Amino acid sequence: MNGRSPTPAPEAARSAEREPARSRALRAARQALRILAVELGTPTEPGTPLFAGVQNPWLRRVPYLVAFTFAVSLLPTTINVLGNDYGMNGGLAGALATAQTVPLMLAVTRPLQAWWVIFAADVVCALALTGVDGVADRAWPWTPPVIVGYLALMLALSLRERRRTLIAVWLTTGFAGILSEAITPERSQSTWVLMFVLAGVMLLMGATLRERGDAQRKLIEQETISEAERARRTLLEERTRIARELHDVVAHHMSVITVQADSAPYRISGIPEEAQEEFGSIAATARESLAEMRRLLGVLRSEETERQGGPEKTPQPGVAMLPKLVEGTVRAGVPVELVLPEEPVALEPAVDLSAYRIVQEALANVVRHAPGAQTRVSVIPTADRSRLTVLIVNSAPPVVSAPSAPLETTGTGHGLVGMRERVRLVDGSLDTGPLPDGGFRVAAQLPLAATPGTAAPGSPPPGSPSPGTAAPGSSAPGSPVPGSAASPSAPPLSAKDSGSS
Questions:
Q1: DSSP label of 491
Q2: Contact 125, 82 (CB under 8 A)
Q3: Same domain, 57 and 81
Q4: Is the entire prediction scored with pTM above 0.70?
């Protein structure tokens, strides 16, 4: 035997386990200190003043005013407390007081850098107070002026810096207070716990206010984006609706062309063979155009139309159907007076449809937003019969009103956006706006391309109501619809409103 006693195996194993645990703890501590240094040395938006995003210029000056007030009030107070109460040398007290208060002005634009200066000055001041006699029975390591200035600095920090930086500042403040316990002068009143708690409360309160403000700003931004997207979607939906309606109008004319071209050889005798081939080519081209339009329309059809089982079959409405529309609006509780031209007016299908849709949307808006208001609808040509004036004027709604029937829901739901699109489609003009008496006015000018006295393509066949006559069961042109308000209280039409020159 060699005289050396072997190390017990269990003790060696415990030593081996203890060493890696100590290494892991040291690595974690070094990593925490590195993160702490990074957070304390990386300010957020340096140089940007607090409240820089506020629109009001007076509110943007509030942080400067508050910082100046604290600095001016705390500087003489700190000098007086350090010199008279604690008995510190006057020069040293003035230097430390300046370092503890003047950087509060810097906190408006660079609060983290201001914290470094003020915190270092507070620590130096606490160390200097250990060598004076006046510290007995007084607050230490943080004097009352120091606590007040530090809390104001915490508020500025919390309104600017991110959460991890605030936690690092708070922990550093507490760590400095814990270290001060080792050199606490006798009979002094320790204030580091009070400082630690109040700093945490101030940081938490400021961070909560800042995060709440950030959330509100983001919400406003999202609402703005959503409103823009909603307007864009509404515009696209209205354009799609117009495209579908124009398909129905154009398809009618293409069908007429096809039928006329196919039947020409049978209706007209003595047509040369070359002319018959030309008519056949025209008919074939028209059929191909119809097929292409139907394929395009399949893309534009709405999901609601597809759920209903296929394309729309109802003919597109026009001015001739306005009496029926007005009657439905009257049943919804809105007194409406309708004025139509005395003589028939030849309208192109697109203009006829646009005039109807404009009146439809205007009446739907009256029912929704001004139920019970006196309304007058006028659809008449100008004096030179070059343009069609569509005018809808409603007065202010009654103070107490409740429609006796459900609100009108037959409009497209796109309001003024749809009106503008339809007016732009036919190269017209639209003027809308509120009236002085609380009502609203919608005035559209649509071109009359067809000459007076000639039927426009696709006009109603003989025997059907023309745009200038009322539908069966309704009033005659120029007179109110039965059940509507024909009293003098209805908004009158001026010469300009009626379209006369």
A1: P
A2: yes
A3: yes
A4: no
